[in-house]
């Protein structure tokens, strides 16, 4: 005797179609006393409706297996390979280096893997001297975050003369595809807002700083996982007497910084010689500590936890020889 409650898909039972053993494919209860069974027998699939009075003649020959192992092997291989790739960074902490077309230098590796990746969330100023390869560091950081599943939306803001260079280097060296925000792109986008439709964008600094319409579109879109500002010293604010003058570029920095989980500023010349102006600039990264007019007699702010600066003399090759 076998209770109908024990009849499950995958089980092999006797008594459904005479003395022959059949395999249950699917079951469906109709009320509490009737069970519709789809089974596979010697003559192929069939269907039968059993009531409680059929229980005495039913016999369980083989219980259902937890795993049937009759799925699509190719689909399983693809899924397991995707899982392996997703977890690859746990076994190769420098996976972005090994999967990119670059030969990074020691200071580039330490910047990404020693300074930036450990900071969660990142609010950082990369201020190495010109020639240090800050674009390569940014590309490595982007790719490593993507590999680790920590980045979906990324916005890069750069001077107009550098946006094509950014686009080309990210594609050629890291196989990362970024679109450049343009008026034509805005006009042809389905929603009229490319920040909603695209996740990887490069935007011209002055184009965004001067356009309130573009800034409104930025605010209407979802937040960014990472925003990078190249030549960030152009996002300056100045102190005139007791009055702080915020430029349009600075206000743009405040806008995107407030909509980003990771915020990276890049500039080889972040300090113009005026400590008050530099403190205002650092307010883009930590408004609680730096924004506004510095107090009279206050000590110089410590920014060592928010920035890194290496001069050309400090840049070395792997063998310790000077890079320049």
TrEMBL record:
One GO MF term: ATP binding
Tree of life domain: Bacteria
InterPro entries linked to this entry: DEXDc_RapA, Helicase_ATP-bd, P-loop_NTPase, SNF2-like_sf, SNF2_N
PROSITE patterns: HELICASE_ATP_BIND_1
Classification via SMART domains: DEXDc (SM00487)
Domain Helicase ATP-binding stretches: 115-288
Protein name, per record: Type III restriction enzyme, res subunit
Organism of this sequence: Bradyrhizobium erythrophlei
